[in-house]
Structure formats: structure tokens, C-alpha cells
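Known limitations

Files may contain more than one protein. Parsers should not assume a single record per file. Below, a two-record file is shown to illustrate correct handling: read the sequence, read the C-alpha cell line, then continue until end of file.
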Amino acid sequence: MDVSMPRDEGREPPEGTQYDSVKGTTLKVYRYVYRSKGAVRVNDVQRGLGLSSPSVAEYHIKKLVGFGLLREEGGGYVVDKVIWSNIVRFRRTSVPVQTAYAAFFAAALAVMLTLFRPSSISAGYFFTLLVVSVGVLLSLYEAYKTLKNL
């Protein structure tokens, strides 16, 4: 499962977010700036992506600046917000990575309550249940925060 944007060329912004219109050439410009080392100028984007003119590159850069994804720095532009942070995309659905952790902890809790349930509850078993339950809750909370920040 690959969660880092530079390795996953087909990844697009999660649907149902304020970044729905970041697609096509605008998405290519974002990826180009994301992968670049340091500030990127309009002419760099135009040449690097083979765009027809600097004004086309500037249009897409200004669009990304308007979304708050890029910011001007040192005579060029840099990524201000990574929108794919902690997100995994399955077909047309975007899921926070923390959801996998929550599923793991929930499955462990279910197994503990059914298959590994002792005849008498010991302090160690109770502590283990408590730790796994906290793991489920924390993972769900982190997944919620990730979705909320999109």
C-alpha cells in the first residue's frame, strides 16, 4: 500500500473536498512543484511540463495559491500544504491511513473478546483490553482529524 504522493502518479485529491477542481494541468503543476527542490519559478514549471506559455503555468500556479496549496517564497513557489498526507486512495474512495490501524485494533479487540477470553478475568487481560480499546479510539480520532483537515 503506497501512501506517498510522489510514488503514486495516478493519485488525485480526495473527492468531496475543497480541492475537487485540482485536476488535469493544475494537478500536474502541483505535482511538479511538490517534487521540486526549493522554490520553483513560473518559467521552470512551463519548461518542465512543456506548457505552451508562461501565462498558462502562471494561471495554474495562481489557482493553487488561491487554494492555499502553494505559497510564494524566494522568488518562486513552494508547496504550502500537502493534501495527500496520510490518505490512501482505493478506486474512487479516499481513506485515512489511520483507518487501517483502527480496523487492526478493532479486529484484535474482537478476537480477544471471543477467542482469547479467559474463564476468569485477570488484571493482565483487563489491561490488554483497555490498551487495545484505547488504540481503536485514538486511531479513529486521528482518522477523523485527517478527514477534517482536507
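...continuing to the second record:
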Amino acid sequence: MCGLPGAGKTTVARRLAREIPAVRLAPDEWLDDLGIDLFAEEVRDRLETRFWCLGQELLATGVSVILESGFWARSDRDEKRLGARALGVRVELHYLDVPFDELCRRVSARPGPTPDAPSPFTRELMTSYVGHFAVPDEAELALFDPPSQSEPNSVNDA
């Protein structure tokens, strides 16, 4: 899954996990369940590294895997694509391209860390995220297998 916060990655990943079927590895859910701040980057990095190790083990046994990390950097997408290809499996990139205002609307509706706290995803934070996100271009997308499952038809379907 590839996209910014609010793009609908979790919604699409849950649907795909049921349809394929596949094991879905979602760092945000694990961090939240463990009571760890979603913005704890060192912990997130360690968790995502562990998920990739587990994902490779599962792929090697024939189990389909969905990595729900956002994959903002081309280098991260290349690493996962090449690693999975080395195991001889199909590799799909589900990039969810959602207009910026819609992303902001969605994330602002998310709850804060406490019931009375606002969402931590401000418009300013989202703007900074856009600056760090490497949008996959057509040449990169062509390196992946075409999605075997249907994609949402609009941002409202995600």
C-alpha cells in the first residue's frame, strides 16, 4: 500500500486481505494497540523492519502479504519489490492518489490521543508530508505487477 495519511490505505488493505486472502501487516494498528505514540519514528522503523522480515517468511511459504506502511520513499518501494521478486512472488503496488484537501478532511476527522484532544494531523503537518512523499511515476509503476484485485473507483470508495 502506498499513499499519504488519509488516502484510504487501511480501508483498501482490509478489503484486499479478505478478497485475496492475505496477511495484513499494519504498523499504525500495532503501535496503537501497544499504546505507543504513532509518531515514535524509531519504534515505527523497528516495527516496519520486523514486519518486512516476517513478510518475507510468509511469502516464502506461499502466504500473500499486504504491507501497509505508506512507502513514501522510492528506495523503500524498490527494496520491497526486489526482495519479494527474489522470492519469486508477484509484487503489486497499490498507490492511492487522493486530492490534498480530501486527505486533510479525512485526517482531521481522526480522533486525537485522548477523547477530548484534536487530531494531530494538522494541515501544516500534511503539507510537510507532501514534501517528503515521492509519488510513484508511470515508469516505477510499470516495474510492479498489475493489481489482481479491483481498485476503488473514486476517493469516496477508499
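Parsers that stop after the first record will miss the second one. For reference, the second record is described as follows. DSSP finds seven helices and two strands in the chain.
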